[in-house]
Write a structure and sequence with these properties.
2 copies of one chain form a homodimer. Chain A is an alpha/beta fold and 319 residues long. Chain A has helices spanning 40-56, 93-101, 110-121, 182-186, 188-201, 206-212, 219-227, 231-255, 271-284, 289-292, 304-317; strands spanning 5-11, 15-22, 27-34, 62-69, 72-74, 79-82, 105-109, 130-135, 139-145, 148-149, 259-263, 294-297.
């Protein structure tokens, strides 16, 4: 008998990815659409279209649909309260989708569902207390305390990227009015900024050569050059890793988790980023918390939002 | 009929305070003893003696005994895992007390039980998510998520005083190997340090006069002079309040709590400390979390540990 599935949807700012996923987290079909461009009605149509494709190509019965959205979510009402990239703010998104799809629908923040995926099936499996940082252009995060997601009074908890670790540090991004936040020091954007400074400081180095060759100094390029052994690129990752270590020190002292999981594009740097972070935690966090925590890369990469959205629904409607 | 009581004990580093307390948090009798001096056996005898006095003078039946201890506590086993001030580390304290007193005994960290008191009966009553900072010589803290204390993997969670907010800030205290922690910037000790700097910088000011009169520049004196209007003392409190505001900004972004409660000796400064903190939160924390949080003084002062220890027992054994 074909396994029952749910549809997990990662509704990102540029594309949406819908997967037909069973209880073992096998993905039976993936449907992708652009999410950028067009108005609200067009976006909703494309979402429905992708989900219907995934439903049609699922091997068996489909039990429900889950959405991970990069936005502050009122998960009780299923509404994206504020969203920078998608024209669905304040819309009763969950109820609209439930009506159009004729299935149970759940909605949560993308970092929260990614944390769920890592906690139930990934790098944080078995932990009672765990924290996920997904480091890309910015930093998303999810927090598990006693096995459950921390959501806060209005669903806005878990903004670990906007934890100030440097009182008078560089300005933060987007709609954050603060400075010296972890995101301002450790994200892909921060890595690009320190790479540019390094290229200017050492005109003979690999980063300067890349700049002269008109290659954009992105986090991805810094990581590539660092893996090739370039000292300037490695130093950039070390600087970011040490700041990350201060952030994880705070997480360790606040939550005493068994595991801190680091995902997102920047984790392509692997131990070039995590080893400096681990060194800082070992020297600055309190005992015994620092002695029990593991700091590990995420298991799930670009599909963690889709998988986590599926896990959320499987736990609610699955048998 | 006289109300049944429990005994709440605040086992501090210099004195212990045991109260016979009913379900309405009325204190029917207080027994106090020194906790400093003597060996482990002498301390245990004094604890038992104080509790027996409180039991003898309770109006009705005594249902159990709770202890709040300034230490990392393994609350499941009732053991003070590490304690700087008391000779009871690694002792099966709960079981020893239960045997000697013939009553159910519970043990937890003093800041955790103070958070319980504020959450069940005080400034955080009715909140689903709340954080307490008790600012004295150092900073203690307790965190309530979804109505329950956050304890962490080995009971070491909630060390918000050791959240780094200034990467390269001043060294922290005691057994903390870090620098720029909230405690290094905001505690009574930090206030004394900035007061000394201010006295040296302005020889005509009130702090310099106090220093010349050989009055120790404690947090308490700074607060007293600030209430009298001294500009230097007020500036010291403003500096501490702004750093506190950065710490509370982090708390607001991480936990999205309905309320942050500030207690401990330093809160004698009242709004001279809290107003600058509120200003920083308003300008640096994320919306909507910053819009829903209240930042308020604790309801319970020096007796919060005793009362919270009683609340812990009332919830476990009370009818």
């Amino acid at each position: 008998m074909p396994p029952p599935c749910v549809i997990g949807v990662d509704l990102g700012g540029t594309k949406l990815l819908a997967g037909a996923i069973d209880a073992e987290l096998n993905v039976h079909h993936r449907a992708q659409r652009p999410s950028v461009g067009g108005d609200r009605a067009a976006l909703l149509d494309r979402v429905v279209d992708a989900v219907l494709e995934a439903i049609a190509l699922a091997p068996g019965e489909v039990l429900g649909v889950g959405f991970g959205i990069p936005s502050l979510i009122d998960s009780e009402r299923g509404i994206a309260v504020s969203t920078v990239h998608l024209p669905i703010a304040d819309l009763p998104f969950r109820d609209i989708m439930a009506e159009r799809l004729g299935l149970p629908v759940l909605v949560d923040n993308d970092a929260n569902v990614a944390m769920l995926a890592e906690h139930r099936h990934g790098a944080a499996a078995g932990a009672r207390h765990a924290v996920l940082l997904t480091i890309g252009t910015g930093i998303g995060s999810g927090i598990i305390v006693d096995g459950r997601l921390v959501r806060g009074a209005v669903g806005a908890a878990g903004e670990l990227g906007h934890m100030v670790v440097d009182l008078d540090g560089p300005p933060c991004h987007g709609n954050c009015p603060s400075r010296g936040c972890l995101e301002a020091l450790v994200s892909g954007s921060a890595l690009a900024r320190t790479a540019l400074e390094a290229a200017q400081a050492n005109p003979d180095g690999g980063l300067a050569a890349a700049l002269a060759a008109r290659r954009p100094l992105t986090g991805a390029l810094v990581t590539e050059l660092a893996h090739e052994g370039d000292p300037d690129a490695r130093a950039c990752l070390r600087t970011a890793g040490e700041a990350l270590g201060v952030g994880i020190t705070n997480i360790v002292n606040i939550f005493n988790p068994e595991v801190v999981v680091v995902g997102g594009g920047v984790i392509a740097a692997g131990d070039l980023l995590l080893d400096p972070a681990r060194e800082v935690v070992a020297s600055r966090a309190l005992s015994p918390s620092r002695d029990v925590v593991r700091i590990v890369p995420a298991r799930f990469g670009a599909e963690s939002g889709m998988l986590g959205a599926a896990v959320m629904v499987l736990e609610e409607v699955g048998s």
